[in-house]
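I had to read the description of the data format several times before I understood it. The format is easy to grasp once an entry is in front of the reader. For illustration, here is how one protein appears when written out as sequence plus structure tokens:
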Amino acid sequence: MSNEPRFAHAFDPITRAYMGPVRLQPSPDGAWYLPDRTVDIAPKRTAGEFQALRLSEDGKRWDVVADYRNRMLWDTRTAMPVPNRLALGEKPPKGVTLAEPFRLDGTTPQCNAWDDGQGLWVLQPDYSGRPLWNKADGTFAAPVPRGQSLPPSVTDHAPPSSRSVPVTYVDTSETWVDAVPAEPEDAPPANLS
């Protein structure tokens, strides 16, 4: 009798996914019996990323199939997680990706947007949930749709809440200042008497 170890190859009874080698032990009569849910056919290749080996229906070979089970999935429209109910051999459906969106902390006016052409997430401006003000006079500005940059005449920096004179926004210093009306050049001089 040979001392060389012998192996069978285990598979999941439901999915038929390869579970790995199982070392065999000879029975007292010297025979080598296969345990349940094993075959004596070794895989000829290994599975790559997002792949698994699955025993063929007839039990005569190992096939390489897609395996996206237990992976985080993201909706490309909302950048929100999607429950993963994919079975062995199924690929993610259209509109779902494995690529994690950028982590945003809410302090910057940005949102995740899926670029189908490149197959990746890109950052776009998002002022849709922020109050906006007109730089000329500090009045509320119209909302800006998601993905659109702020118009040059609008800011998301709030004007002073207590103001007794009109204000205007200065881009160079990024501050609100009192708006002092300019006196016309040809106005008569003030009466000093």
